[in-house]
Amino acid sequence: MRRAIALAARGLGATSPNPVVGCVITAPDGTVVGEGWHQRAGGPHAEVHALRAAGEAARGGTAYVTLEPCNHTGRTGPCAQALVEAGIATVHYAVGDPNPQATGGAATLREAGVEVHGGLLEDEAEAGNTAWLTAVRLGRPHVTWKYAATLDGRTAAADGTSRWITSAESRADVHRLRAESDAVLVGSGTLRADDPHLAVRGVEDAVQPLRVVLDTHARILPTARVLDGAAPTLLVVGEDADTRHLPEGTDILRLPLTDGRIGIHDLLPRLYARGVRALFLEGGATLAGAFVEGGAVDRVVGYLAPALLGEGPAALTGAGIETITQALRLDITDVVRLGPDLRITAVPTTAPKEH
Questions:
Q1: Which of 48, 345, 310, 61 lies closest to 176, judged by CA?
Q2: Burial of 210 (0-12, 13-18, 19+ CB in 10 A)
Q3: Residue 293 annotated to the active site
Q4: Which of 198, 204, 285, 286 is nearest to 234 (CA)?
Q5: Sheet containing 299-305, strands listed edge to edge, beginning at the edge strand earlier in sequence
Q6: How far apart are CA 19 and CA 130, in angstroms?
Q7: Upper half-sphere CA count for residue 282 (Cβ side, 13 Å)
Q8: What pLDDT, in 10s, does the model give residues 195-245?
Q9: 275 near 182, Cβ under 8 Å?
Q10: Nearest to 58, CA basis, from 25, 80, 36
Q11: Residue pLDDT, tens place only, 241-265
Q12: Rounded to the nearest 10 degrees, how much is the dihedral formed by the CA atoms of 11, 145, 148, 333?
């Protein structure tokens, strides 16, 4: 199962709106005869790849799958039935499928006489598929907020300069996280200050994520780098914004304004409907604050550089936190050194909110 979890991770960033899934098949004597993972949305599922690799050697064998085999016919057939037809005798799966359209695979297998066991390495498999599982359970994308700062929490110097606070190793790691995401989001402030490109670079065979710009009044310039066509881009604006200056064919989503702002919980279900399950938030302090205030941050990834600035913008503002008792408490799940920097990954201790 641990091998199946590692295989599943190869699909990160390429399978949405489907989950990442890995499968290992052993013959009756325990020999591994087939492996597979879900490689792209619309393509064969992990079990099908593994069964094809195993061939007749799968008959009477055991399948180890990171997610309960699906029980529905979409662009591909039900994996539970494929396992039955291949003569698999035993199935171990890690996580039950929360998708109401696909659940029931375990029951189908049992009805066909297959021995089925769930929960094997459930926590490890859940961690590897957390974006998709969170999205399906909450009806909105899983949100990772990324920021880079000095040890005293500054994201730029007093004069606004910020390149480069962190190292080349940290910046390369950000591209990896982008590649594992379905969409990258920035606000109009970051767009005007940095003119970011937001496409993935330096990651082999990466599927470019959707670049999302939250720009209430459509002040984006037609020459902005995110409009270069290197990756798909969605411009989110207020319902009355004037967009006549933008290139023909620009993908625009208009949303109503509340107190002059686009609501986070108006945006997130719209992105979910577009197939976004993993959202990578790269905006500035104000946009991050809106997500924190809305209870819509599921993971925080902070890159901390061994430097001090003393003055300059903070990483987070406007989060609706006024006293220490309102602090968003986090559990640190990972600390890694990248060149001279530290990458700290943490998740909120409170349950995330539905849209």
A1: 345
A2: buried
A3: no
A4: 198
A5: 251-255, 233-238, 210-214, 183-187, 278-281, 142-150, 299-305, 341-348, 330-338
A6: 9
A7: 25
A8: 889 999 999 888 899 999 999 999 999 999 999 988 999 999 999 999 999
A9: yes
A10: 25
A11: 999 999 888 999 999 998 888 999 9
A12: -70
The span from the CA of 61 to the CA of 90, in Å, is 7
Which DSSP string corresponds to 26-92?
E-TTS-EEEEEE--STTS--HHHHHHHHHGGGGTT-EEEEEEPPP-S-SSS--HHHHHHHTT--EEE
Residue 347 three-state SS: strand
pLDDT higher at 75 or 261: 261
Identified catalytic residue from 35, 47, 68, 282? 47
Find out whether 300 and 347 touch, Cβ atoms under 8 Å.
yes
* Residue where the block lists tokens 């913008």: 313
Residue type, 56: E
Distance CA 50, CA 265 (A): 39
Rg, the chain, Cα only = 22
Residue with tokens 């009806």: 139
- 71 in Cβ contact with 104 (< 8 Å): yes
- Other C-beta atoms closer than 10 Å to the C-beta of 353 total 15
Cα(350)–Cα(336) distance, integer angstroms: 24
Residue 355 scores a pLDDT above 50: no
Instruction: Tell me the C-alpha distance between 113 and 290, whole Å.
Output: 51
How would you label 32-67 residue by residue, b for 16+ Cβ within 10 Å and e otherwise?
bbbbbbbeeeeebbbbbbbbebbeebbeebbbbbbb
- DSSP secondary structure letter of residue 283: -
Looking at per-residue confidence, does 104 or 355 come out higher? 104
* Beta strand ranges found along 158-290 (DSSP E): 183-187, 210-214, 233-238, 251-255, 257-258, 261-262, 278-281
- Residue that has been written with the tokens 């990756």 in this structure: 231
How far apart, in Å, are the Cα atoms of 259 and each of 236, 252, 256, 263?
Answer: 17, 21, 10, 9
Q: Which amino acid is at 325?
A: T
List of residues 6+ apart from 210 with CB closer than 8 A = 182, 183, 184, 231, 232, 233, 234, 274, 276
